[in-house]
Protein backbone atom coordinates (compact mmCIF):
# COMPACT_ATOMS: atom_id res chain seq x y z
CA UNK A 1 0.00 0.00 0.00
CA UNK A 2 1.46 3.33 -1.07
CA UNK A 3 1.11 6.69 0.64
CA UNK A 4 -0.66 9.26 -1.54
CA UNK A 5 1.30 12.34 -2.55
CA UNK A 6 0.20 15.82 -1.45
CA UNK A 7 -1.64 16.58 -4.69
CA UNK A 8 -3.59 13.34 -4.30
CA UNK A 9 -4.68 14.49 -0.83
CA UNK A 10 -6.53 17.35 -2.56
CA UNK A 11 -8.46 15.14 -4.99
CA UNK A 12 -12.28 15.06 -4.88
CA UNK A 13 -13.59 12.51 -2.39
CA UNK A 14 -14.79 10.04 -5.05
CA UNK A 15 -11.34 9.98 -6.66
CA UNK A 16 -9.63 9.46 -3.28
CA UNK A 17 -12.04 6.63 -2.46
CA UNK A 18 -11.36 5.01 -5.84
CA UNK A 19 -7.61 5.06 -5.22
CA UNK A 20 -7.71 4.10 -1.55
CA UNK A 21 -5.09 1.44 -0.92
CA UNK A 22 -3.99 1.47 -4.57
CA UNK A 23 -1.17 3.04 -6.54
CA UNK A 24 -2.22 5.50 -9.23
CA UNK A 25 -0.66 4.46 -12.55
CA UNK A 26 -1.75 7.04 -15.09
CA UNK A 27 -3.53 10.37 -15.56
CA UNK A 28 -5.47 11.23 -18.71
CA UNK A 29 -5.14 14.96 -19.37
CA UNK A 30 -8.12 15.90 -21.54
CA UNK A 31 -9.99 18.78 -23.12
CA UNK A 32 -13.24 18.71 -25.14
CA UNK A 33 -12.97 19.77 -28.79
CA UNK A 34 -15.86 21.29 -30.80
CA UNK A 35 -17.73 17.97 -31.29
CA UNK A 36 -17.13 17.06 -27.63
CA UNK A 37 -14.46 14.43 -28.29
CA UNK A 38 -11.85 14.11 -25.53
CA UNK A 39 -8.45 15.26 -26.82
CA UNK A 40 -5.23 15.19 -24.84
CA UNK A 41 -2.65 12.71 -23.65
CA UNK A 42 -2.08 10.09 -20.98
CA UNK A 43 0.93 10.51 -18.71
CA UNK A 44 2.39 8.43 -15.89
CA UNK A 45 1.18 9.61 -12.50
CA UNK A 46 4.74 10.46 -11.48
CA UNK A 47 5.06 12.83 -14.44
CA UNK A 48 1.65 14.42 -13.87
CA UNK A 49 2.68 15.20 -10.30
CA UNK A 50 5.55 17.33 -11.62
CA UNK A 51 3.80 19.12 -14.49
CA UNK A 52 1.75 22.28 -14.07
CA UNK A 53 0.49 22.24 -17.65
CA UNK A 54 0.97 20.58 -21.01
CA UNK A 55 0.71 21.69 -24.64
CA UNK A 56 -1.62 20.87 -27.52
CA UNK A 57 -1.88 22.75 -30.83
CA UNK A 58 -4.83 25.13 -31.23
CA UNK A 59 -5.71 23.28 -34.45
CA UNK A 60 -7.58 20.63 -32.43
CA UNK A 61 -10.45 23.13 -32.46
CA UNK A 62 -10.34 23.41 -36.27
CA UNK A 63 -11.04 19.72 -36.92
CA UNK A 64 -14.30 18.54 -38.42
CA UNK A 65 -16.11 15.44 -37.16
CA UNK A 66 -14.51 13.44 -40.00
CA UNK A 67 -10.99 14.44 -38.96
CA UNK A 68 -10.43 16.93 -41.77
CA UNK A 69 -9.24 20.46 -41.11
CA UNK A 70 -11.16 23.69 -41.61
CA UNK A 71 -9.31 26.87 -42.53
CA UNK A 72 -10.20 28.60 -39.25
CA UNK A 73 -6.80 29.84 -38.07
CA UNK A 74 -6.54 33.44 -36.81
CA UNK A 75 -4.54 36.31 -38.28
CA UNK A 76 -1.24 34.53 -37.50
CA UNK A 77 -2.11 31.87 -40.07
CA UNK A 78 -1.91 28.09 -39.96
CA UNK A 79 1.05 27.66 -37.63
CA UNK A 80 -0.62 25.34 -35.08
CA UNK A 81 0.31 27.41 -32.06
CA UNK A 82 0.71 25.58 -28.78
CA UNK A 83 -1.99 26.16 -26.21
CA UNK A 84 -1.29 25.86 -22.50
CA UNK A 85 -3.58 23.26 -20.90
CA UNK A 86 -3.93 23.62 -17.13
CA UNK A 87 -5.71 21.03 -14.97
CA UNK A 88 -8.91 21.78 -13.09
CA UNK A 89 -8.36 19.37 -10.23
CA UNK A 90 -12.00 19.61 -9.13
CA UNK A 91 -12.77 17.51 -12.25
CA UNK A 92 -10.37 14.67 -11.36
CA UNK A 93 -12.29 11.42 -11.56
CA UNK A 94 -11.76 7.71 -12.08
CA UNK A 95 -11.55 5.92 -15.41
CA UNK A 96 -12.90 2.67 -13.94
CA UNK A 97 -13.01 0.70 -17.22
CA UNK A 98 -9.23 0.82 -17.70
CA UNK A 99 -6.93 -2.09 -16.93
CA UNK A 100 -4.89 -0.11 -14.41
CA UNK A 101 -5.63 2.63 -11.89
CA UNK A 102 -6.25 5.73 -13.94
CA UNK A 103 -7.69 9.20 -13.34
CA UNK A 104 -9.13 11.63 -15.87
CA UNK A 105 -8.64 15.38 -15.40
CA UNK A 106 -10.30 18.05 -17.53
CA UNK A 107 -7.98 20.89 -18.48
CA UNK A 108 -8.68 24.51 -19.43
CA UNK A 109 -7.04 25.98 -22.52
CA UNK A 110 -5.06 29.25 -22.45
CA UNK A 111 -2.82 31.09 -24.89
CA UNK A 112 0.79 31.96 -24.13
CA UNK A 113 -0.31 35.21 -22.43
CA UNK A 114 -2.65 33.37 -20.07
CA UNK A 115 -5.87 34.36 -21.83
CA UNK A 116 -8.61 31.71 -22.20
CA UNK A 117 -8.76 30.23 -25.71
CA UNK A 118 -12.09 31.73 -26.90
CA UNK A 119 -13.19 28.74 -28.99
CA UNK A 120 -12.49 26.09 -26.36
CA UNK A 121 -16.04 24.86 -25.52
CA UNK A 122 -15.52 24.87 -21.74
CA UNK A 123 -14.25 28.45 -21.94
CA UNK A 124 -17.31 29.45 -24.00
CA UNK A 125 -19.61 28.16 -21.26
CA UNK A 126 -17.53 29.86 -18.56
CA UNK A 127 -17.83 33.14 -20.49
CA UNK A 128 -21.63 32.90 -20.56
CA UNK A 129 -21.84 31.98 -16.86
CA UNK A 130 -19.57 34.96 -16.13
CA UNK A 131 -22.03 37.32 -17.85
CA UNK A 132 -24.80 36.07 -15.56
CA UNK A 133 -22.61 36.48 -12.48
CA UNK A 134 -21.73 40.05 -13.50
CA UNK A 135 -25.46 40.81 -13.22
CA UNK A 136 -25.71 39.19 -9.79
CA UNK A 137 -27.34 36.04 -11.18
CA UNK A 138 -26.43 32.38 -10.73
CA UNK A 139 -27.67 30.10 -13.54
CA UNK A 140 -28.68 26.55 -12.61
CA UNK A 141 -29.22 23.71 -15.09
CA UNK A 142 -30.29 20.07 -15.07
CA UNK A 143 -29.64 18.09 -18.26
CA UNK A 144 -31.47 14.97 -19.39
CA UNK A 145 -29.52 12.58 -21.62
CA UNK A 146 -31.24 10.31 -24.15
CA UNK A 147 -29.28 7.65 -26.03
CA UNK A 148 -29.61 4.29 -27.73
CA UNK A 149 -28.02 0.94 -27.00
CA UNK A 150 -27.65 -0.69 -30.40
CA UNK A 151 -26.20 -3.81 -31.94
CA UNK A 152 -22.54 -3.60 -32.91
CA UNK A 153 -22.31 -2.00 -36.34
CA UNK A 154 -19.05 -2.17 -38.27
CA UNK A 155 -20.51 -1.36 -41.70
CA UNK A 156 -21.66 2.25 -42.26
CA UNK A 157 -23.80 1.06 -45.19
CA UNK A 158 -25.89 -1.18 -42.91
CA UNK A 159 -28.87 0.16 -40.98
CA UNK A 160 -28.42 0.58 -37.23
CA UNK A 161 -30.41 -2.03 -35.30
CA UNK A 162 -31.51 -2.29 -31.66
CA UNK A 163 -29.30 -4.32 -29.35
CA UNK A 164 -30.15 -7.83 -28.26
CA UNK A 165 -31.72 -7.76 -24.83
CA UNK A 166 -31.07 -10.06 -21.88
CA UNK A 167 -33.99 -12.23 -23.03
CA UNK A 168 -32.30 -12.90 -26.36
CA UNK A 169 -34.80 -10.73 -28.23
CA UNK A 170 -34.01 -7.39 -29.89
CA UNK A 171 -35.00 -4.35 -27.85
CA UNK A 172 -38.60 -3.36 -28.61
CA UNK A 173 -39.92 0.12 -29.34
CA UNK A 174 -42.97 1.86 -27.87
CA UNK A 175 -42.19 0.61 -24.35
CA UNK A 176 -41.69 4.01 -22.72
CA UNK A 177 -41.24 3.86 -18.92
CA UNK A 178 -41.43 0.05 -18.95
CA UNK A 179 -39.41 -1.50 -16.13
CA UNK A 180 -39.35 -4.79 -18.04
CA UNK A 181 -37.68 -2.98 -20.92
CA UNK A 182 -35.11 -1.47 -18.54
CA UNK A 183 -34.42 -4.96 -17.18
CA UNK A 184 -33.52 -6.07 -20.72
CA UNK A 185 -30.45 -3.86 -20.48
CA UNK A 186 -29.72 -4.78 -16.86
CA UNK A 187 -26.04 -5.75 -17.23
CA UNK A 188 -25.22 -2.55 -19.15
CA UNK A 189 -27.14 -0.38 -16.69
CA UNK A 190 -25.40 -2.09 -13.76
CA UNK A 191 -22.03 -1.07 -15.23
CA UNK A 192 -23.29 2.47 -15.86
CA UNK A 193 -24.27 2.75 -12.19
CA UNK A 194 -20.97 1.22 -11.03
CA UNK A 195 -18.87 3.50 -13.23
CA UNK A 196 -20.90 6.57 -12.19
CA UNK A 197 -20.46 5.72 -8.52
CA UNK A 198 -16.71 5.29 -8.97
CA UNK A 199 -16.61 8.69 -10.67
CA UNK A 200 -18.69 10.39 -8.00
CA UNK A 201 -21.68 11.19 -10.22
CA UNK A 202 -25.23 11.20 -8.89
CA UNK A 203 -27.83 9.82 -11.30
CA UNK A 204 -31.35 11.11 -10.65
CA UNK A 205 -32.90 8.19 -12.53
CA UNK A 206 -32.79 5.92 -15.60
CA UNK A 207 -35.91 5.30 -17.68
CA UNK A 208 -36.81 3.50 -20.87
CA UNK A 209 -37.76 5.97 -23.59
CA UNK A 210 -40.04 5.38 -26.60
CA UNK A 211 -37.41 4.04 -29.01
CA UNK A 212 -36.12 0.49 -29.32
CA UNK A 213 -33.15 0.36 -26.95
CA UNK A 214 -33.52 4.05 -26.04
CA UNK A 215 -32.76 5.11 -22.47
CA UNK A 216 -32.76 8.41 -20.59
CA UNK A 217 -30.55 9.42 -17.68
CA UNK A 218 -31.45 12.46 -15.59
CA UNK A 219 -28.84 14.38 -13.63
CA UNK A 220 -29.44 16.51 -10.54
CA UNK A 221 -29.47 20.28 -11.03
CA UNK A 222 -26.39 22.35 -10.37
CA UNK A 223 -23.65 24.55 -11.82
CA UNK A 224 -23.68 24.69 -15.64
CA UNK A 225 -19.93 24.02 -15.96
CA UNK A 226 -20.04 21.11 -13.49
CA UNK A 227 -23.05 19.55 -15.22
CA UNK A 228 -21.49 19.97 -18.66
CA UNK A 229 -18.35 18.25 -17.31
CA UNK A 230 -20.54 15.37 -16.12
CA UNK A 231 -22.33 14.98 -19.46
CA UNK A 232 -18.94 15.04 -21.21
CA UNK A 233 -17.71 12.32 -18.86
CA UNK A 234 -21.00 10.39 -19.04
CA UNK A 235 -20.85 9.99 -22.80
CA UNK A 236 -17.55 8.16 -22.49
CA UNK A 237 -18.70 6.21 -19.43
CA UNK A 238 -21.84 4.95 -21.20
CA UNK A 239 -19.93 3.98 -24.34
CA UNK A 240 -17.44 1.99 -22.26
CA UNK A 241 -20.23 0.23 -20.35
CA UNK A 242 -21.92 -0.77 -23.62
CA UNK A 243 -18.71 -2.14 -25.14
CA UNK A 244 -18.37 -4.51 -22.19
CA UNK A 245 -21.62 -6.15 -23.31
CA UNK A 246 -21.04 -6.42 -27.06
CA UNK A 247 -23.17 -3.44 -28.01
CA UNK A 248 -22.69 0.22 -28.89
CA UNK A 249 -24.06 3.30 -27.15
CA UNK A 250 -24.89 6.05 -29.62
CA UNK A 251 -25.72 9.69 -29.01
CA UNK A 252 -26.69 10.39 -32.61
CA UNK A 253 -29.76 12.60 -32.76
CA UNK A 254 -31.57 10.14 -35.08
CA UNK A 255 -29.81 6.78 -35.34
CA UNK A 256 -32.79 4.63 -36.43
CA UNK A 257 -35.16 5.84 -39.14
CA UNK A 258 -38.50 4.80 -37.64
CA UNK A 259 -37.65 5.50 -33.99
CA UNK A 260 -37.71 8.76 -31.99
CA UNK A 261 -34.59 10.89 -31.86
CA UNK A 262 -32.40 11.48 -28.82
CA UNK A 263 -32.46 14.87 -27.10
CA UNK A 264 -30.51 16.62 -24.38
CA UNK A 265 -33.30 18.50 -22.61
CA UNK A 266 -31.95 21.36 -20.49
CA UNK A 267 -33.84 22.61 -17.42
CA UNK A 268 -33.07 26.21 -16.42
CA UNK A 269 -33.53 28.34 -13.36
CA UNK A 270 -31.70 31.48 -12.24
CA UNK A 271 -30.84 32.37 -8.63
CA UNK A 272 -30.48 35.92 -7.39
CA UNK A 273 -27.04 35.75 -5.75
CA UNK A 274 -27.85 38.43 -3.15
CA UNK A 275 -31.10 36.87 -1.91
CA UNK A 276 -30.55 33.23 -2.81
CA UNK A 277 -34.07 33.11 -4.30
CA UNK A 278 -35.26 31.68 -7.61
CA UNK A 279 -35.73 34.68 -9.92
CA UNK A 280 -38.60 32.95 -11.71
CA UNK A 281 -40.81 33.04 -8.58
CA UNK A 282 -42.10 36.09 -6.70
CA UNK A 283 -42.61 36.57 -2.94
CA UNK A 284 -46.12 35.07 -3.10
CA UNK A 285 -45.05 32.18 -5.32
CA UNK A 286 -46.27 33.66 -8.60
CA UNK A 287 -44.23 33.91 -11.79
CA UNK A 288 -42.05 36.98 -12.32
CA UNK A 289 -41.14 39.20 -15.24
CA UNK A 290 -37.76 37.43 -15.34
CA UNK A 291 -39.58 34.14 -15.99
CA UNK A 292 -41.31 35.59 -19.04
CA UNK A 293 -38.20 37.40 -20.24
CA UNK A 294 -36.16 34.18 -20.17
CA UNK A 295 -38.82 32.38 -22.23
CA UNK A 296 -38.88 35.26 -24.72
CA UNK A 297 -35.11 35.02 -25.04
CA UNK A 298 -35.38 31.36 -25.95
CA UNK A 299 -38.13 32.06 -28.47
CA UNK A 300 -36.28 34.95 -30.09
CA UNK A 301 -32.74 33.57 -30.20
CA UNK A 302 -32.90 29.75 -30.27
CA UNK A 303 -33.41 29.64 -34.06
CA UNK A 304 -30.04 31.35 -34.49
CA UNK A 305 -28.45 29.04 -31.91
CA UNK A 306 -29.85 25.88 -33.47
CA UNK A 307 -26.67 25.25 -35.48
CA UNK A 308 -24.89 24.68 -32.15
CA UNK A 309 -27.61 22.60 -30.46
CA UNK A 310 -28.21 20.59 -33.66
CA UNK A 311 -24.64 20.46 -34.99
CA UNK A 312 -24.82 17.82 -37.76
CA UNK A 313 -26.94 17.06 -40.81
CA UNK A 314 -28.38 14.06 -38.94
CA UNK A 315 -29.54 16.39 -36.14
CA UNK A 316 -32.33 17.80 -38.30
CA UNK A 317 -33.89 14.38 -38.84
CA UNK A 318 -35.25 14.71 -35.28
CA UNK A 319 -37.42 17.70 -36.12
CA UNK A 320 -40.10 15.87 -38.06
CA UNK A 321 -43.76 16.39 -37.19
CA UNK A 322 -45.24 13.46 -35.26
CA UNK A 323 -41.90 11.90 -34.26
CA UNK A 324 -41.72 12.89 -30.55
CA UNK A 325 -39.55 15.97 -31.02
CA UNK A 326 -40.54 19.65 -30.94
CA UNK A 327 -40.95 21.45 -34.24
CA UNK A 328 -41.62 24.93 -32.87
CA UNK A 329 -40.89 27.28 -29.98
CA UNK A 330 -44.28 27.45 -28.35
CA UNK A 331 -44.18 27.49 -24.56
CA UNK A 332 -46.62 25.63 -22.34
CA UNK A 333 -47.04 24.32 -18.83
CA UNK A 334 -46.73 20.56 -18.32
CA UNK A 335 -46.90 19.90 -22.07
CA UNK A 336 -44.20 17.77 -23.70
CA UNK A 337 -45.24 18.67 -27.24
CA UNK A 338 -43.96 22.23 -26.80
CA UNK A 339 -40.36 23.20 -27.54
CA UNK A 340 -40.28 25.19 -24.28
CA UNK A 341 -41.95 23.33 -21.41
CA UNK A 342 -42.68 24.50 -17.88
CA UNK A 343 -42.59 21.38 -15.67
CA UNK A 344 -44.76 20.99 -12.59
CA UNK A 345 -42.83 22.37 -9.62
CA UNK A 346 -43.12 24.28 -6.38
CA UNK A 347 -42.26 28.01 -6.63
CA UNK A 348 -38.73 27.48 -5.26
CA UNK A 349 -38.06 24.89 -7.96
CA UNK A 350 -39.75 26.70 -10.88
CA UNK A 351 -37.78 26.09 -14.04
CA UNK A 352 -37.93 26.33 -17.83
CA UNK A 353 -37.11 23.30 -19.98
CA UNK A 354 -35.49 23.73 -23.40
CA UNK A 355 -36.45 20.59 -25.39
CA UNK A 356 -34.72 21.58 -28.63
CA UNK A 357 -31.09 20.47 -28.20
CA UNK A 358 -30.03 17.09 -29.56
CA UNK A 359 -27.92 14.63 -27.58
CA UNK A 360 -25.31 14.88 -30.34
CA UNK A 361 -24.38 18.43 -29.34
CA UNK A 362 -21.29 19.27 -27.35
CA UNK A 363 -22.68 19.62 -23.79
CA UNK A 364 -20.62 22.73 -23.03
CA UNK A 365 -21.83 24.45 -26.20
CA UNK A 366 -25.43 23.24 -26.02
CA UNK A 367 -25.81 24.54 -22.46
CA UNK A 368 -23.89 27.72 -23.31
CA UNK A 369 -26.19 28.58 -26.23
CA UNK A 370 -29.34 27.83 -24.24
CA UNK A 371 -28.11 30.04 -21.39
CA UNK A 372 -27.03 32.73 -23.85
CA UNK A 373 -30.54 32.91 -25.32
CA UNK A 374 -32.04 33.19 -21.84
CA UNK A 375 -29.48 35.85 -20.90
CA UNK A 376 -30.38 37.94 -23.95
CA UNK A 377 -34.03 37.61 -22.97
CA UNK A 378 -33.33 38.83 -19.44
CA UNK A 379 -31.36 41.79 -20.80
CA UNK A 380 -33.88 42.69 -23.53
CA UNK A 381 -36.91 42.34 -21.21
CA UNK A 382 -39.30 41.34 -23.98
CA UNK A 383 -42.47 39.32 -23.54
CA UNK A 384 -43.02 35.84 -25.02
CA UNK A 385 -45.99 34.74 -27.07
CA UNK A 386 -49.14 33.67 -25.27
CA UNK A 387 -48.97 30.34 -23.48
CA UNK A 388 -49.83 27.55 -25.90
CA UNK A 389 -52.77 25.25 -25.31
CA UNK A 390 -53.14 21.87 -27.02
CA UNK A 391 -50.86 19.72 -29.17
CA UNK A 392 -47.91 21.80 -30.39
CA UNK A 393 -46.90 19.02 -32.79
CA UNK A 394 -49.85 20.08 -34.95
CA UNK A 395 -48.41 23.58 -35.45
CA UNK A 396 -45.93 24.90 -37.96
CA UNK A 397 -42.16 24.86 -37.56
CA UNK A 398 -40.32 27.82 -36.05
CA UNK A 399 -36.74 26.91 -36.88
CA UNK A 400 -34.60 25.60 -39.77
CA UNK A 401 -35.03 22.07 -41.05
CA UNK A 402 -31.57 21.74 -42.63
CA UNK A 403 -28.04 22.49 -41.48
CA UNK A 404 -27.28 25.05 -44.16
CA UNK A 405 -30.23 27.27 -43.20
CA UNK A 406 -29.32 26.98 -39.51
CA UNK A 407 -25.76 28.12 -40.25
CA UNK A 408 -27.11 31.10 -42.21
CA UNK A 409 -29.07 32.23 -39.13
CA UNK A 410 -26.15 31.61 -36.78
CA UNK A 411 -23.76 33.63 -38.91
CA UNK A 412 -26.13 36.63 -38.85
CA UNK A 413 -26.77 36.51 -35.07
CA UNK A 414 -24.45 39.27 -33.87
CA UNK A 415 -26.13 39.61 -30.46
CA UNK A 416 -25.61 35.88 -29.81
CA UNK A 417 -22.00 36.15 -31.00
CA UNK A 418 -21.30 38.85 -28.42
CA UNK A 419 -22.50 36.58 -25.62
CA UNK A 420 -20.73 33.42 -26.82
CA UNK A 421 -17.65 35.27 -28.07
CA UNK A 422 -17.03 36.53 -31.63
CA UNK A 423 -13.90 34.39 -32.07
CA UNK A 424 -15.85 31.28 -31.11
CA UNK A 425 -18.63 32.16 -33.55
CA UNK A 426 -16.11 32.66 -36.36
CA UNK A 427 -14.30 29.35 -35.79
CA UNK A 428 -17.49 27.36 -35.22
CA UNK A 429 -19.09 28.67 -38.39
CA UNK A 430 -16.03 27.88 -40.53
CA UNK A 431 -15.69 24.35 -39.13
CA UNK A 432 -19.39 23.57 -39.57
CA UNK A 433 -19.45 24.98 -43.11
CA UNK A 434 -16.56 22.68 -43.98
CA UNK A 435 -18.44 19.68 -42.56
CA UNK A 436 -21.62 20.62 -44.41
CA UNK A 437 -19.81 21.02 -47.72
CA UNK A 438 -18.21 17.62 -47.24
CA UNK A 439 -21.61 16.05 -46.58
CA UNK A 440 -23.05 17.58 -49.75
CA UNK A 441 -20.55 15.54 -51.75
CA UNK A 442 -22.02 12.26 -50.43
CA UNK A 443 -24.63 10.43 -52.53
CA UNK A 444 -27.10 8.62 -50.28
CA UNK A 445 -28.76 5.21 -50.78
CA UNK A 446 -32.13 7.04 -51.08
CA UNK A 447 -30.86 9.00 -54.06
CA UNK A 448 -29.50 5.88 -55.77
CA UNK A 449 -32.72 3.95 -55.15
CA UNK A 450 -35.22 6.57 -56.29
CA UNK A 451 -33.32 8.75 -58.76
CA UNK A 452 -30.95 6.45 -60.60
CA UNK A 453 -33.54 5.03 -63.04
CA UNK A 454 -36.49 7.35 -62.54
CA UNK A 455 -35.39 10.89 -63.37
Quick check: average pLDDT? 92
What summary fits the major beta sheet? 8 strands, mixed
CATH topological fold name of the largest domain: Creatine Kinase, Chain A, domain 2
- Specify the CATH homologous superfamily of the largest domain: Glutamine synthetase/guanido kinase, catalytic domain
Q: Please give the domain count.
A: 2
The succession of helices and strands, N to C, reads: HHEEHEEEEHEHHEEHEEHEEEHHHHH
User: How much helix, percentage-wise, in residues?
Assistant: 25-40%
How would you sum up this structure, described in words?
The chain has 455 residues and is of the alpha+beta class. The chain has two domains: 110 residues, Glutamine synthetase, N-terminal domain (Ubiquitin-like (UB roll), Roll); 324 residues, 2-Layer Sandwich (Creatine Kinase, Chain A, domain 2). Strand 5 and strand 6 form a beta hairpin. Helix 4 packs antiparallel against helix 7, helix 6 packs across helix 7 and helix 8 runs antiparallel to helix 9.
Amino acid sequence: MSTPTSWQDKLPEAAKTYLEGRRLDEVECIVADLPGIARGKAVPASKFEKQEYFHLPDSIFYQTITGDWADAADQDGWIEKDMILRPDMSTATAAPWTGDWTLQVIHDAYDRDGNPIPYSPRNVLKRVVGLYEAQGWKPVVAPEMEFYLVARNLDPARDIEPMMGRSGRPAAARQAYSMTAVDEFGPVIDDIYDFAEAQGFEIDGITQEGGAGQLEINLRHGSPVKLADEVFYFKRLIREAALRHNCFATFMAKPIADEPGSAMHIHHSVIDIETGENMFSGPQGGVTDAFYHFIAGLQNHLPAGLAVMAPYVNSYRRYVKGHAAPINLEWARDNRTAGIRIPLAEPAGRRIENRIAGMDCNPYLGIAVSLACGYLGLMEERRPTRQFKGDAYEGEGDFPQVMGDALDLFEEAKALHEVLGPDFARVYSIVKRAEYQEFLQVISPWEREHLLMNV
